[in-house]
Design brief:
The protein is mainly alpha-helical. The chain is 49% helix and 3% strand. The protein has a domain of 120 residues.
Length: 250
């Protein structure tokens, strides 16, 4: 009896292992597969929700910040132009009814309306250009997400081992919301967590995708595939030549 190998019966149906009549029992294999699927779904749902929130917040912040800068340049160009118009100061001082000859006043009003129309058109174009950047910006931020694995399996805290639970971290690089840790670059490396486009030069000095993947293989982590190049911000607006557009000389 002591020399015979003792094997536990099936934990689910109490079937004997390697039964000569019915063979091995599939209950434990099926139960394990189901448990793995449930654990994976729970883990993936949790992390995907956090990554989704982080990527969405970062992309929206980048797009709106870029648009705000473009809009401000449009407004500055508009302000410079209208203040250069003859009799504009009198027009404001008299609240739109200055004591001017009718043809002069009509020309000034036409110039102001044209400038307003051009400003609105430019702002619309800038916003459209920013919104069309969303796919590229989202792709960029998703490419910044990493999933790190421990170097070796760590026993769970239950079962008498008393060891801490494994800590798998999915870590985006910037603007991390509560509960999501940003990626940490090497000390003194100058790695920036700024959004793409506006700071593309800073990001361009960071490690290449191939180097990051090589470092990740050495450290036991795996980088989620995606674009590594920062998207380019929409082309800044050029100050419109208002006088020439509306047929008025400098």
């Amino acid at each position: 009896m002591a020399s015979r190998e003792i094997t536990a019966n099936c934990a689910i149906c109490n079937h004997r292992p390697k039964d000569p009549e019915s063979g091995d029992c599939p209950c434990e294999t099926k139960a394990l597969r189901k448990a793995i699927e449930q654990a994976e779904k729970k883990w993936l749902d949790s992390w995907m929700a956090r990554i989704h929130d982080w990527v969405t917040n970062a992309a929206v912040r980048y797009i709106t910040t870029t648009f705000a800068a473009l809009k401000q340049r449009r407004i500055q160009a508009y302000t410079t132009y209208v203040h250069s118009l003859p009799y504009y100061r009198e027009y404001r001082q008299w609240h739109g009814r200055p004591p001017l000859h009718a043809p002069v006043l009509a020309q000034l009003i036409s110039q102001l309306k044209g400038a307003d129309t051009d400003l609105q058109r430019g702002v619309n174009d800038d916003w459209r250009a920013c919104v069309l950047k969303y796919p590229e910006v989202l792709d960029y931020y998703y490419s910044q997400v990493e999933i790190s694995l421990p170097r070796g399996p760590v026993p769970p805290p239950f079962g008498g081992h008393g060891a801490p639970a494994p800590n798998n971290v999915a870590s985006p690089s910037a603007f991390a919301p509560p509960g999501v840790e940003p990626k940490k670059g090497k000390k003194g490396s100058g790695r920036s967590s700024a959004p793409p486009g506006a700071f593309a030069e800073e990001i361009g000095r960071s490690k290449s995708t191939r180097e990051r993947r090589r470092d990740s293989r050495d450290s036991g982590s795996y980088i989620v595939s995606g674009r590594g190049r920062a998207p380019v911000a929409p082309t800044p607006p050029v100050a419109p030549s208002y006088p020439y557009q509306f047929g008025i000389g400098p």
